[in-house]
Fold this sequence. Notes:
The complex is a heterotrimer. By secondary structure, chain A is an alpha+beta fold. Helices cover 37% and strands 21% of the residues of chain A. Chain A is built from 20 helices and 22 strands. Chain B is 9% helix and 47% strand. The radius of gyration of chain B is 15 Å and the shape is globular. The two termini of chain B are 30 Å apart. Chain C is built from 5 helices and 5 strands, in the order βαβαβαβαβα. Chain C is 42% helix and 20% strand. Classes of the chains: A alpha+beta, B mainly beta, C alpha/beta. Chains in contact: A-B, A-C. The interface between A and C is large, with 68 and 58 residues.
Amino acid sequence: MSFETDPMAEIRASFFVECEELLEALQDSLQIMDDGAEDSETINVVFRAVHSIKGGAGAFGLDALVRFAHRFETVLDALRTDRMQADAAAVKVFFQCADHLSDLVRHSRDGGSDPAEQSGALLARLDALLGTEAAPAEDIAEPEIDFQPMGLTLDLAALDDALPADLPPLNALPPLCDLADLPPPEADGLKTYRLHFTPDTKLYETGNEPFLLLRALEELGAAQITCDTTRLPKQQDLIPEHSYLSWTVKLETDAEEAKILSVFDFVEGLCSLDLQPIAVTPDAASASAPRTPKTPTAPPSPSAAPATAKAPTPIKNVVRVDLDRIERLVNLVGELVINQAMLSQSLETANLPPHGDAMNGLEEFQRLTRDIQDSVMMLRAQPVKSLFQRMSRIIREASTAVNKEVRLHTEGDATEVDKTVIERLADPLTHMIRNAVDHGLETPADRIAAGKPAEGQVKLSASHRSGRVIIEVSDDGAGINRPRVLQIAIDKGLIPADAQLSDSEIDNLLFLPGFSTAGSVSDLSGRGVGMDVVRTAIQALGGRITITSVPGSGTCFSISLPLTLAVLDGMVIDTAGETLVVPLNLVVETLTFQAQDVSMIRPGQHVVRVRGAFVPIVDLAAELGYRAPQNSYDGAVALLIAHENGNRAALLIDNILDQRQVVIKGLDDGFSRAAGIAAATILGDGQIALILDPSDIITNAAQPLQKPLRAGALT
Amino acid sequence: MTDNNRDSTIELLTFQLAGHEYALDIMSVREIRSWTRATPLPHAPTCMRGVINLRGTVLPVLDLGDRLGLSPQVQSERAVIIVVAQGETLTGLLVDAVSDIVALTKDDLQPPPDLANGAATGMVSALTLIDERMVRVLDLAATVTLEKGMAA
Amino acid sequence: MSLSILAVDDSRTMRDMIRLALQPAGFTVHTADDGLHGIDVLDGITPDAIITDINMPRMDGFGFIDAVREQEQHRATPILVLTTEAAPELKARARAAGATGWIVKPFDPAKLVKALQMVAG
Lengths: 715, 152, 121
């Protein structure tokens, strides 16, 4: 791609950004309506959002979008003008239409499967809302008629849809004002017309100008213009703003009558106009009248001081910045942080007085670096609102699918989180929301039997807590049925039949792979995706997920995430002389082995007893090929790692060096991406340390026979 | 390479590997760094020496001698890392010592005899004589691209 | 001939489109986000013509035209209404408020230029 900017493509991109904002405003206002708290402005906002999307879509020839938005708008207009009422059923249809509109927008932007075929059913529902008011003949082609009363179509439209990338810039279009440059019309196609034109006073009041209209006529052909001044009163009687003049134009042109009349489109009804064809060919007589009439315009008046009260205009000051530039800044700041750490380290070894200028300055430098880092990270931050809005749609669809009444409450949707985190949270959250509706909430009948309102509640909240983002999905359903979960786990052989588990341990069984509590696999959440996948996705973001449940009153999943993906809370460790970083969120605790705690299952495979449970030992250095497996584990240090499938493993290391934030440096996907290694970071001494993917290492260690032997692994 | 086609003159960076002389088109060389310890990557092919910190980015370093199948040498004090760019990817090549920069014309380059034995042959794109010493000119793309199987 | 235009529209896309259509044709384009903002902007400039949307927050197009026409120096400034509705009653309302003409969205850049030249010279 070249770096030439195509203005049309830029506007198109900016249109889609605007669409997202409009769709968000639409959702917000519909939510207000759903809560019954709307005023007339709420409905106006809804109307304008749909209206603006339609307007922009028309400019880019996005026909399906225009058609649907137009019909949606028609109904909203009826609502706006009190021709119909928005009851709960209507708002529900509006929500569906808003969802569909957003599908159409995304399809227009990204392509993919065309949602337009669903338009029909929704349009029928919209029409049903209008009831008898709906003009039955108003079919889907109607807006096009509506759009072309003046023949004003955008020539680019058709092209645009087919070849969005090849759009000619607007200035490459045929020259403007082409009518004026037309060659003189050929004699044989010519007709002659006589036109009488008498402006009303009102014509001037609307800012129209006879001179310009007459000039436009002249552009159509050879015109002889005569001004009739006979109605001009004596000067003392003249009211400057009245219309006294009229004109007669003899026009020789090849233009159709309609084309001539179109010149007067804007002043129709503001003048008397009489257009007659003259059969005879024109003679050259009566060319005596002044060609350009003096036109009365509104008289200049001493410029009055503008009477407008200055209202403050709250216009959001927003700069749009290329994401690449932000990435670059984030990287540079990452380097600054590393640089600062290196400087600190070298100054600390220089034996400087602890409260001298150098150390004080260093402290200040550290603080500034941290502040800059936080500020830069916030550039990538976005409110979780858009994500939450997507979830409200999931709730609507999921509750319809299982015939439950569900209301979603959101809290803290202004909480800002890294853009990438938001994008990657969509799938796990969707799954959790579906689960809450499908498994968490009881059927309306069961709820009523339990003395609860038929309508279930799902709450989605976001907040910042001690440098992390907490996102919670909770429901007021029946809570986890622990005896049943336990039984399923035993039946599936996931735990021994005589296992004694605490409530919380039972709850955590939900995170085991393939675990499904639904008696019958419903269409909704039984797609082979379990909570284990959710947990893996959260962990991949450096997050943790926990579950709490109270029988009879509901379940809450809590996700704790780092503010940004660019840094990681890590434990810096040392093994076989190599320095490595383990993501802190996976470390449950640190262990120091006693000889009697370690037992061999078979050669090369040991377990350690941690509070009664046997946990497999994974020798990190051996797994990474740094050295041969240890023979003795007495006094060895290990990290208890929460493995992705809910199991745990003890990762054997040599020493724990430090616990700190590290800046994540990606490794090339090519040859330097190794199993068990997630990324790299640069430590204070300038050396690169690898960031481990402990789950990967543990999984590999669990399959020793499939592990290929590596040349040089034991050197 | 396209750079070569544009002009009949090319400049080569020559360097030593296991007593042999090799060369790379100077256009692909970004910088030359003295050897620093590389952080080894687990399970990497033996020619992958690991990664080093190149002003804040993670630079993979290949042991070029091993890559070319030459017998292992004791690493000398003069060992350097030649940082090369292949497309957008930077790679470090560990060599025994850098010798010289020489300007040649295209006519001075001969295609290597088509012996077609061993993987290393594909990495040598041309041969030339400089002061009566044979210099092997490397095809950078073939040199820095490791086959999938090697990374296992 | 450089005409100065004030375009009032709450849609950024529309404002961008208008600017893109008019600037290459030599127009100077000022923009405002809604009626009230338009009145503010008008305080500092005397455009040769004004283009305004109808559906806007805070002050809609009708209110804006009213307010413009109340100002002595803008009594005869041509005002084109941008609308997706070509419905006759909307035109009538716009005209009653003092609009000079209308442009139906989506507009062809050439036609927009032409319409402006029709009303502003």
